[in-house]
Amino acid sequence: MITKYFTKVVVKFNPFGKEGKSSRLFLAAIPPALRGQCQIDYEVLTKTSKNKPIIKVSYKDKKTLEADPVHSNFEELAAYFDRHSRKLKLDEAIKS
User: Fold this and answer.
1) Most CB within 10 Å of its CB: which of 35, 71, 81, 95?
2) Residue 31's domain spans which residues?
3) Which compartment or compartments is the protein found in (predicted)?
4) Residue 36 pLDDT more than 90?
5) Is 9 within 8 Å of 41 (Cβ atoms)?
6) Which of the four pLDDT bands, split at 50, 70 and 90, describes residue 53?
């Protein structure tokens, strides 16, 4: 997963729900070096919580993408967020 262009990550999940595994894997895929540069917020939801599980990523170009971890596995989430990261990587290569 290309995390170089992330500026903020928000993850809300129930660890015992269907979304638990993919959300935990997503958080684990963020390298420790990026954790100082990128703001990472997470919220552990309870069974009775009214908040919905979500993964939201903001990029350096101010674009924000959201995904529902209930209906996606980790590979699908990584591919979804990598699409925009690859675009930013290409733009960066063209400018240099």
Assistant:
1) 81
2) 6-95
3) Mitochondrion
4) no
5) yes
6) very high
Interacting residues of 36 by C-beta distance below 8 A, sequence separation 6+: none
CA dihedral angle for residue 57, residue 80, residue 77, residue 9, rounded to 10 degrees: -10
**Residues in a beta bridge with 40:** 9
Task: Give the number of domains in the chain.
Answer: 1
Over residues 54-63, the pLDDT tens digits come to 999 999 999 9
Calculate mean pLDDT across residues 33-47: 92
Asked if residue 79 is part of any domain, the answer here is yes
